[in-house]
Design a protein that fits this description.
The chain has one domain. Helix 1 packs antiparallel against helix 3. The protein has about 80 residues and is mostly helical. The model has no long low-confidence stretch (mean pLDDT about 85). It is elongated, with a radius of gyration of 22 Å. The longest helix has 25 residues. Helices cover about 80% and strands about 0% of the residues.
């Protein structure tokens, strides 16, 4: 996501004709978008995205289980 934000920032600065960025080629300005595409492709290929989604699902499941145990009076006691 950082690469996408950088690319959008660079495009905006290039559009506004900021001095230090206007001398660069548009290809260099768009490079962060290409890096973002490569990152997302590799993350999907190696299962990083799915693994993070499963970790979030496990955390939600555990929180729900603890809430239900506490509602029945069997969960960890709060001070």
């Amino acid at each position: 996501m950082v690469f996408v934000f950088l690319a959008l920032l660079y495009l905006l600065l290039k559009y506004l004709d900021v001095a230090w960025l206007s001398s660069y080629s548009t290809w260099w300005v768009l490079l962060p978008l290409a890096l973002a595409a490569v990152w997302w492709s590799l993350a999907d290929q190696y299962g990083y995205t799915q693994r993070k989604a499963m970790e979030r699902m496990d955390q939600k499941r555990e929180a729900r289980r603890l809430r239900q145990l506490e509602a029945m009076g069997r969960g960890p006691k709060r001070k």
